[in-house]
Amino acid sequence: MRDVYIIGIGQTKYGEHWEKSLRALVVEAGLKAIEDANIYSKEIQAIFGGNMSAGSTIYQDNIGSLISDFSGLSVNRIPAMRIENGSASGGAAVHAGFVSVASGFYDTVLVGGVEKLTDVSMEDQAEIVSGEVDQEWELFNGGTLAGLQALMARRYMHEYGAKREEIAMLPVLSHEHGSENPYAHFRNRIKVEDVINATMVADPLTMLDMAPASDGAAVLILASEEKVRQIKPEVKIKISGSAMSSDFMSLQSRENLLELKAVRDSTEKALKMSKSDIKRVKIVETHDSSSIMGLLILEEIGLFPKGKAGKYLEEGYGHKDSRVAINTSGGLKAKGHPMGATGIGQIVESVIQLRGKAEKRQVHNADMALAINVAGTGSASISHVLEVV
Amino acid sequence: MTIPRYWREFQHRYRLIGTKCPKCGRIYFPPREVCPYCHRESIGKMQKVEIKNTGKVYSYTVIHQDVPDFKFLKPYLFIIAEMDSGVKVSGQLVDVSPEDVRIGMPVRISFRRIREEDRAGIIEYGYKFIPDE
Ligand SMILES: [Zn+2]
């Protein structure tokens, strides 16, 4: 297996892009990434596109071809395919791109994710984002994605005696960091009381526990060692670990609602591949599609004891100046959650940090980052470890 | 939902039919064709079992979202119950007010209407939980 590097990044601002189409978003991020990598488009040998819902939001499938065409790459006759794994579509696309370069088959590939949610009504959005839970056995009975995550939150409070305020700490932290990210959907700071008193979505989770439905795109250019030697980037960033795992699709099938076995497995494998451990990681992007999901992930990867993540955040852990910085991008909560782009955007943020270009949200001595992208209530998880080498 | 997609799951939804692995004895609901733990040794051998309809609330929430198929119900109680047969089942809980629900509360499954006429004009039936005390 060969080493794989990230030589280019690009992203749009996340948020409500009323004036931009899905294809305009992904092209904007793609061209930025190609320019950032300082390569010519003809050097790209394959495209892996992450997208969850274009078939439901804009009735457009065959997203691989769409990205290839409007990025001006179809005339090069390169393979271009769509990867769909719900909210984890982006991370899955990165894993597929990684494997294709690591295997020796390609030297330079483009991994791009995009989602366009504001072309449908808010009601339809709630149904579409629930498309990643079991339609026959969860959503049929009224179990929405938010509702299922609320069941996890209630059980978390019951089993561990965690307080509602502790769960609200993650959105507070994400917004604090997001306020310094020019690409974030929301740049306001919020307080614990704001989270608790916001409009109820699924008791105990409110609107401010939940990631928003955002439009946006994010793109990476991955390259082999050979390619990196030609390009000579200022900071050489390696994907030192990439792993994906799966778990039971529906929450009711799991023995323990509070155990995210796929998250644990993909993270252990990615860290092992990078010959590292969680204690060395300086930056973590957690998948806070809701506050509770973000916290359960932080506990599952061994950063905090079970049931205590919120308490640790109250003590200042997770802040960009603490030992481990969490969601410096603003996370899914504040940076936003354009599903197909989300997992790729987490890595874009990690690269910005590792290059030392994160300005006001820069983490001191950032040399290793971990990004975790999850589908639904934990049915799929992709972990990536990134390092400056 | 088209009629066949709804009708296909009739017996499972109406009679709570799950499957049991003859090798390890694990019971699954919804039913599975293969036991994830015994895999090859369970293929073609999974047995149908009726899940006993009593259990206890394992976790609960009140959903306030405007989801097209369910907004006529909102807010509605949604739970995961740990059934006496060992499996967990999720579904709506009715005939009780949210403030009276607690984890551990005995519930049982009852046959109910799930949605009003949907986009294909079907009124869909299935199971919901009701208090059992
Ligand atoms: Zn078995």
Which features would summarize this protein structure in a list?
heterodimer, A: 389 residues, alpha/beta, Peroxisomal Thiolase, Chain A, domain 1, two-stranded antiparallel sheet, 18% strand, globular, B: 133 residues, mainly beta, OB fold (Dihydrolipoamide Acetyltransferase, E2P), five-stranded antiparallel β-sheet, three-stranded antiparallel β-sheet, 2 helices, 8% helix, binds zinc ion
What report would you give on this structure?
- The complex is a heterodimer of chains A (389) and B (133).
- Chain A is α/β, with parallel strands linked by helices and 389 residues long.
- Chain A folds into 2 domains: 4-121 and 213-237, Peroxisomal Thiolase, Chain A, domain 1 (3-Layer(aba) Sandwich), CATH 3.40.47; 131-211 and 240-388, 3-Layer(aba) Sandwich (Peroxisomal Thiolase, Chain A, domain 1), CATH 3.40.47.
- Helix content of chain A is 37%, strand content 18%.
- Chain A contains 15 helices and 12 strands.
- In chain A, the strands form 2 sheets. A 10-stranded mixed beta sheet of chain A has the order 3-2-4-7-1-8-12-11-9-10, with helices on both faces. A two-stranded antiparallel sheet of chain A has the order 5-6.
- In chain A, β5 (200-202) and β6 (205-206) form a beta hairpin.
- Chain A is globular, with a radius of gyration of 19 Å.
- The model of chain A has no long low-confidence stretch (mean pLDDT 97).
- Chain B has a 5-stranded antiparallel beta sheet with strand order 6-5-4-7-8. In chain B, strands 2-1-3 form a 3-stranded antiparallel beta sheet.
- In chain B, a hairpin with a 4-residue loop joins β5 and β6.
- Chain B is globular, with a radius of gyration of 16 Å.
- Chain B starts with a helix and ends with a strand.
- The model of chain B has no long low-confidence stretch (mean pLDDT 90).
- The chains are: A alpha/beta (389), B mainly beta (133).
- The A-B interface holds A 122-124, 126-127, 130, 136-138, 140-144, 146-148, 150-155, 158, 199-205, 250-254, 257 and B 9, 28-30, 58-71, 73, 75-76, 78-80, 87-92, 98, 103, 114, 124, 126-128.
- Zinc ion binds at residues 21, 23-24, 26, 35, 37-38, 42 of chain B.
